[in-house]
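Here we describe the complex-level prediction in full. Unlike the single-chain runs in Section 2.1, the two entities below were treated as one system.
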Amino acid sequence: GQNIDQPTEMTATEGAIVQINCTYQTSGFNGLFWYQQHAGEAPTFLSYNVLDGLEEKGRFSSFLSRSKGYSYLLLKELQMKDSASYLCAVRGVAAGNKLTFGGGTRVLVKP
Amino acid sequence: EAGVVQSPRYKIIEKKQPVAFWCNPISGHNTLYWYLQNLGQGPELLIRYENEEAVDDSQLPKDRFSAERLKGVDSTLKIQPAELGDSAVYLCASSPSLGPNTEAFFGQGTRLTVV
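The structure predicted for the assembly as a whole is:
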């Protein structure tokens, strides 16, 4: 099966940087996704990694190391609106390419 | 372009009653997912469709849950009879195909409360 671990909760200050780690175990890795979910709303796509390295999209960056089964999402210049849950999800060939989600990391941005 | 549409947004029912959720995916998306999300947790896959075929329903509690996707477009998820533990948000998502970099687009979800 697929196993995904990420911290439950993190707190950071407005303007700061926060790094959300995600470790995973899967057979036939076929991509890792990060989603943002505000309370009571649908998850929205943030980033996709399939090769090792860093993908940057404005204030958000995502890193992947396939050999370590590790990814992180980096949020820079934090804004109050970044308070949300951040979901790490992995696609594995052995699991029929289904998208399996971690439990999510709730980020609270304080003024 | 319209996103994934789900209805109803909220549903409150008594235990042992039936309930149904409806999902209209993004036009042209062949893959449709139903996820269950409990408070403070990540979404858990219930069933995945490729067009009208259910290709992964291993996590669907088939004694009380059923789903269909007639004509490979809209889908309904049914629970009969509902139990207290079924209270959760039911999310529908769709994607164009199973290409490796195709993300899933989620609907707003249906929040079910069983009392």
